[in-house]
UniProtKB/TrEMBL annotation:
It comes from the Bacteria. This is Metal-sensitive transcriptional regulator. It holds the Pfam family Trns_repr_metal. InterPro entries: Metal_Tscrpt_repr (IPR003735), Metal_Tscrpt_repr_sf (IPR038390). It comes from Listeria swaminathanii. Signal peptide: none annotated. One of its GO terms (biological process) is negative regulation of DNA-templated transcription. GO terms for molecular function: DNA binding; metal ion binding.
Amino acid sequence: MNIEEKKALVTRFAKIEGHVRSIKNMTEEERDLETIMQQIAAVKKAMDAAAKLIYTEQMKDLIKQGETDETVIKKKIDSFIR
């Protein structure tokens, strides 16, 4: 992962962190549960996008390394799917 991609990922996690803090505050304030659930869904989507980015970078690294051993590739894929 290059520096720009890492910076973008760290920024993405900071935004997610802020969003989770907001959900916590909404819960403490006993805000509308539907709104809270919508915000939780948004955080899940953001986390999925971050995971996809990390997964993509891992696969790029395997390709760059010329990895051809199917067992190694399968283990990497399986570790991300869990």
